[in-house]
Amino acid sequence: MLQVTLQYGIIGPGAVGTTIAYELLRSLDRDQVHLFGKKAWKVPYRQRDIGEQSELQTQTLAHFDDTLDVLFIAVKTHQLDHVIEQMAHVIDDDTLIILAQNGHGQLEKIDHPHVYQAVVYISVQKTEDGVIHFRDRILQVQEDEFTSELAQHLADTRLELQLKNDIEVEIWYKLLVNQGINSVTAVGRQTAAILRVPEIRNLCRNLLEEGQRIAEAAGITLPETIVEDTMKIYAGYPDEMGTSMYYDITSGAPLEVDAIQGFIYRKGQELGLYTPYLETVYSILAAAENGKLNYK
């Protein structure tokens, strides 16, 4: 299925999509990598840790007339339906489609033989001045013969395509990571510096513990140490680093609350679990998403 020279497409010149494109462009020929956006423009990109800087050129899907071997979809969850309507002419049955999105429940929307949900660990920020990468370049996907071959193609890049035996476990792990830090930074409208507040750290812990109970009740086997492990991850975040939900709520953009907090909350309700911390945070964020609260 995969050729020696692959054509890669990335839909979504935001934080994650631009990082994927940048890392591919560092190691591959420029005509192999195509970053798609709503219009043709240049995205400034900076690696915060090592000072690398570049500008990435975007193009529109409508003006692309080739078939892609690998397509990364890195848009917000609420944008996926529109993307699906626009991408049919750039894929065929052999294309690998990788959803590089937060949350759960999006995979079922794409009727295709080779579509994968990736768990994304890329700490990056998009601002009016461009994209700033903080740490990590990891995509976790379900292991099979196709993703194994893709991992070989990406071996010379700095992207880490980690192959997993049970991606559902990894998706839930990341859901919990997002549930804590995304929730408090969005509700508190602060970057990771908000974790310096003891009460906020305690809230994060309570959210994680509730999420762990929901996952276990749903038959997902997570590490027993997931709460402590995740709190250690949070402790390593620089104060100035925000989350995707923090940037969305402070800019007035739509939130991915339905695919993250909402998914976990609804699963807990289905299982008859009492989760007061999650219910409170989800209710506040859902109200904000529906325009019932004025945060500005």
Q: Can I get a quick summary?
A:
This protein has 296 residues and is α/β, with parallel strands linked by helices. The protein is 38% helix and 21% strand.
Explain the overall architecture:
The protein is built from 9 helices and 9 strands. It has helices at residues 15-27, 80-86, 145-153, 167-188, 198-217, 226-235, 244-251, 261-270, 276-289, and strands at 8-11, 33-36, 42-47, 53-59, 70-73, 96-100, 115-127, 130-142, 160-164. The radius of gyration is 19 Å and the shape is globular. Helix 4 (167-188) packs parallel to helix 7, helix 5 runs antiparallel to helix 6 (226-235) and helix 5 (198-217) crosses helix 8. 38% of the residues lie in helices and 21% in strands. The protein is an alpha/beta fold. The chain has an 8-stranded mixed β-barrel.
Distance between the termini: 50 Å
Helix content: 25-40%
Structural class: alpha/beta
Radius of gyration based on Cα positions? 19 Å
Shape: globular
Order of helices and strands: EHEEEEHEEEHEHHHHHH
Q: Would you report the number of β strands?
A: 9
Q: What fraction strand?
A: 15-25%
Low-confidence stretches: 292-296
Question: What does the main sheet amount to?
Answer: 8 strands, mixed, barrel
Strand order within the widest beta sheet: 1-2-4-3-8-7-6-5
- Mean pLDDT across residues: 91
How many H/I helical runs?
9
Task: Describe the SSE topology.
Blueprint: E1 8-11, H1 15-27, E2 33-36, E3 42-47, E4 53-59, E5 70-73, H2 80-86, E6 96-100, E7 115-127, E8 130-142, H3 145-153, E9 160-164, H4 167-188, H5 198-217, H6 226-235, H7 244-251, H8 261-270, H9 276-289
Parallel strand pairs: 1-2, 1-5, 2-4, 3-8, 5-6, 6-7, 8-9
Antiparallel strand pairs: 3-4, 7-8
Helix pairs in contact: 4-5, 4-7, 4-9, 5-6, 5-8
